[in-house]
Write a structure and sequence with these properties.
Blueprint (H helix, E strand, L loop, with lengths): L5 E5 L4 E4 L1 H7 L3 H4 L25 H6 L4 E9 L5 E12 L5 E10 L2
Antiparallel strand pairs: 1-2, 1-5, 3-4, 4-5
Length: 111
């Protein structure tokens, strides 16, 4: 059991795992997180100045292309209605042949 919020995203962009800390940080039950897309419009991903982040520039999209992203602060709409600053760390997951199969994301509320 990790006190750090963690989610795993598959290669198609769907959340396949969320721990209890992630559910608390995002204001939603774990069962509702699983299956949700990381880039769903409801998240309202934006830079700290409020500018929407294009899908291809989100930390998860970057990790799906093989990049490791560290300490990226973004604005996120939590499902409980709060707008929060989250510091994200995203890393690609690879299969035995080296292909990216998904992403692991650790984050914390930096509001």
């Amino acid at each position: 059991v990790s006190p750090v919020p963690l989610v795993q995203v598959d290669a198609a962009g769907a959340i396949t795992f969320a721990n209890a800390a992630a559910a608390r940080a995002l204001g939603v039950g774990r069962e509702l997180l699983v299956g949700t897309r990381y880039d769903a419009p409801a998240w309202g991903l934006a830079a700290l100045d409020g500018t929407p982040i294009p899908r291809e520039r989100t930390p998860v999209a970057r990790a799906l292309r093989g990049e490791t992203v560290a300490a990226c602060e973004v604005l996120v709409n939590a499902m409980d209605g709060a707008r929060r600053v989250m510091e994200l760390h995203a890393a690609p997951l690879h299969d035995d042949e080296g292909a990216v199969t998904g992403v692991i994301v650790a984050f914390e509320d930096a509001t």
